[in-house]
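Journal club prep — side note

Before the paper discussion, L.F. wants everyone to see what a predicted structure for a comparable chain looks like in token form. Sequence:
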Amino acid sequence: MPGILPPPPPPPPRLLARNCVFVSLILTLALLLACSSAAPVADPEPEPAAREAPAAPSADPQPEPAAPEVLTAPVTTENTPAMPAATPVTDQVAAGPTATPETVAPAPTPSPVVAVPTATPIPAPAATPVPDTPAPTATPVPTPTPAPTLTPLERDRETLIAIYDALGYSLGHRVSDDSIQFWPGVAGYGDAGVTELDLSNPADDGSSVITGMGIPVELGNLTNLTVLNLGGNRLSGEIPAELGNLSNLTVLNLGRSRLSGEIPAELGNLSNLTTLNLSRSRGGESANRLSGEIPAEWGNLSNLTTLNLEGNQLSGEIPAELGNLTNLTVLNLSENQLSGEIPAELGNLTNLTELHLGWNQLSGEIPVELDNWLKSIEVVLLRGNQFNFVDQDNKCVKRYMEERFDYPGYFGFAQWCE
């Protein structure tokens, strides 16, 4: 027909096939890009192996893009060679978006190990050889010679020398004498040592053997002494407590020795003592002036027969413990400052023949416990006290004694009167 243009000739078959392949590639790339942009970034792998990694959220399905329509011209069979069949494209386009596999976190790169520099060894100085020096020969230490064992008599010799030095004696040549029988005051000795020491003043004429010296404490080392007599001297100071070590002592005479101070209680250890004389005696410059109380420990002197404390300055009460001295025959406590009542325990002294309590500050009544023996006693001296039965003028109490004790009055009855 006139005016109508003929249709364009169809493209060659080879060009058409090439275009189909090119379009398929473009669609495939578009799908891959869409899937990669929609997939979430995988979380890094958790450090602890025990924990489970959270599940990755599933990607939202993307709609499959429609294949573009390919316009083809009508193909005439006349004078057109047969078109080769198009080679089918397989596995080019995925049916849907493929899930991106979980990304494994790369292992941390280890830090490079820094090599520690090796210390350069310092060479030790070569030891200077020391020439062999011979070891010094040790000076032998002399073995001390043990002190010779002294016999009791030799030991007492050493003690006596110390006593004589303390008392001012001059022994002279007698110290070197093998026998001590001529030493001053040694009245008895034997293999057991010195047993009697008599340094008294027998003259009793006002003179003295020892003047102004205290009793040496070394006397306490003569433990075998049975008699110690220092009476009649002009000593000074107190009676040393060391005399309480003389456990074998039977006679202790310190009368008329100008002693002062308190009587040591340690004398109560002399359990073998039979005579204890600490009296002033006739007074004068040699009189004792002992003070304080009579020790209660003297109640242990169970063998004592004579106790003479007359003429001192003793105070306090008469200890009831003196009632334990059942062997006592003479008790002289007169001319002191004793106070209180006569203890009833003195009623135990049934062997007593002389009781001297005059010129003290005693008071009260005579205990009835004394009734059993007081009427048979030979000498009783109670005057100069403050007894209830003595009148204000301290007159004779003959009637009182006659009525109460049937006192015979034939022996020293004047002792009851002023």
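L.F.'s comment for the group: The first strand starts at residue 186 and ends at 190. Keep this in mind when we get to the figures.
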